[in-house]
Amino acid sequence: xxxxxxxxxxxxxxxxxxxxxxxxxxxxxxxxxxxxxxxxxxxxxxxxxxxxxxxxxxxxxxxxxxxxxxxxxxxxxxxxxxxxxxxxxxxxxxxxxxxxxxxxxxxxxxxxxxxxxxxxx
Length: 121
Fold this sequence. Notes:
Elements: H1 7-21, E1 30-35, E2 40-46, E3 51-57, H2 72-88, E4 95-97, H3 106-117
Parallel strand pairs: 1-4
Antiparallel strand pairs: 1-2, 2-3
Helix pairs in contact: 2-3
């Protein structure tokens, strides 16, 4: 009988498979998403230079910690925050890296909020 892989291991395998095809450049960096049970994190990364250009999370949105960081509303606020910071620093187009998660729920809410502000991917 085959050993069943844990959920985290499966997500890591999927994320590695996605990262083979995705890479952020200086012209079009990568918007990477990580979600935990309590919080949501996003950062824009230039993979050629190995630098994180912009970051946002539910731990700190506009200088304040969100009381409930693990819901869709909090994910929308993180998406809005990261898009505004990116546009302010001259980044208008990104490659979206969903991090091995399904494009559903909080991940989709973050992406849609970033698109509404004006970030293109």
